[in-house]
Amino acid sequence: MTEKQNQETADQKLVGLLAQFEDPGSLVRACNEARESGYNKIDAYSPFPVHGIDPALGIPRTILPFFVLIIGLTGCAVGLGMQYYANAGDWSPLFPGYNFMISGKPFFSLPANIPVTFEIVILSSAIATFLGMWALNRLPRLANPLHRISRFKRVTNDKFFLLIETKDPQFKREETESQLSQWGASVVEEVNEDLTDQQLPSWLQLAGLMTALILLIPPVLIFRAEGMTSRKPRLHVVPDMDWQEKYKTQTLAPNLGDEQHPNFLFVDGRAMQEPIPGTIARGDLYTDSEYFRGIKSGTESFATISTAGVHTGLQDAAHQDDSHQDEAAKDKPAEPAKDDPAAAPEPDWVTQFPANVHVNQALLERGQRRFNIYCSVCHGYAGNGDGLVNARAMALAASGQAQWTAAKSLNDPETKKNPVGRIFDTISNGRGTMGPYKSQIPVEDRWAIVAYVRALQGTGIKPTTMTKAVEKAVAE
Ligand code: HEC
To answer: How far apart are CA 33 and CA 184, in angstroms?
Structure first.
């Protein structure tokens, strides 16, 4: 770039007078004089920090902290307000917000909302500080006219300068110049600004515009794609292990007519074969009906017992012809229809604990612990049907917000009459609206719970660990 002239011409404008000083002391003195003469658009330049220059120039405290404070407080209000709106908002019909009930907790609680608020305050304050600093310093600036003055280059070496801007109301070309010489300036020079300096070169403007336009292409493409339907699978950027060389159990090969699907493992097009009828997996032979079902042995067919709880998973329509359905129905005589108890006869429940269940202290205590874990939430620790979940659900039901069947009191005279086999079955398969616990609680533990339920029903057996409160509640 060619060195431009520092002269006031048609496209040059006088922006100030620059005075050169030879030592920091005379710079500070001149600054003081200038300030006292009423100049305020002045600035000093030196190769190193000069003590006392700030007060000499009369530089006021920066307003940046107040600016940041205001932005920070605004951020605080926005952060809290946003969360209030999203969780507990109930301002006006125009701006209603959302009431989110989560586990019965209060809609709005200050401590829970502090982290987000804090983060927003910090973020907005940091951005305000950064941008505020730029704005207050009038940055970014494309060019500074001082750089045109060759003398000024020594400001980083051994010379000191004072600039009085033409913007200053006190500024008068001749008068200011003579004042500066009077205050000890060795040289006073005009500072002229080239009006074209503050404009971006046209090639840069063009490049900026082009970049902005190019940057618009990806978002435009994304928005366009979002508004369109496509038959292609979506882009899978990180596949992880989503596609593997494997067959899912019981996947059916695509129907290719007579042609055998080349990839399938078996001729019938399946990825896995059905179990051979009559086979029983290890550990799945539930012959002891009393122990595994709570039903007197001899009253159940072998097929029912042996397949109890075995889910073959072969549910595709091809195998559900009529004969199979008949068989299935025949296989489940012990499963009473849930909605209509009269539809199926009550099985012959065992009334005594099966021979291999030894009711002793260890079993009762095990049962107590399992009961407290699984059952007390609804039935209460003493089995009176007053557990916490039940209490909450009843409260919700009372105000019409939920539907709930009260958990039975195990001390209800009718319930007390239930034989142990039926209690075992209730735990295993559920009853009425109570869900099954077969998959959570192993058979031994189910019997332990039955024993403890019996203890709660005040039948004389009781674990030594029974708390006084529970004991009292049982006695009542
Ligand atoms: C989610 C709540 C809930 C839990 C947990 C629960 N129950 Fe129940 N229970 C009920 C309800 C509700 C009923 C009444 C069902 C009905 O009559 O529709 C009931 C009924 C019963 C009955 C009486 C059944 C009958 O023969 O009429 C027994 C016995 C019983 N529960 C035992 C237990 C045991 C033991 C556990 C722990 C393994 C347990 N419950 C866990 C809700 C629960």
So the answer is: 10
* Rounded CA separation 144/155 (Å): 14
pTM of the model: 0.46
Query: Which among 407, 459, 403, 397 is positioned nearest to 431, based on CA atoms?
Result: 407
Domains assigned to the chain:
1-200 (no CATH), 249-278 (no CATH), 289-313+320-341 (no CATH), 361-475 (1.10.760.10)
- CA–centroid distance, 364 to ligand 1, in Å, is 19
Tell how far the Cα of 363 is from the centroid of ligand 1, in angstroms.
Answer: 21
C-alpha of residue 431 to centroid of ligand 1, in Å: 7
Pocket of ligand 1 (CB under 6 A): 374-375, 377-379, 389, 405, 407-408, 410, 415, 418, 422-423, 426-427, 431-434, 437, 449, 453
Residue 453 CA: nearest ligand 1 atom is 35
pLDDT tens-digit series, residues 396-429: 988 888 888 888 899 888 888 999 999 999 999 9
pLDDT tens readout for residues 209-255:
999 999 999 999 999 988 888 888 878 888 888 887 777 776 766 66
Task: Write down the residue that tokens 């403007």 correspond to.
Answer: 205
Collect all residues with Cβ–Cβ distance below 8 Å to 427 and sequence separation of at least 6: 437, 438, 441, 446, 449, 450
Interatomic CA distance for residues 125 and 139, integer angstroms: 19
Q: Where are the alpha helices (DSSP H) in 227-375?
A: 289-293, 302-306, 322-331, 361-374
C-alpha 374 – ligand 1 centre gap (Å) = 10
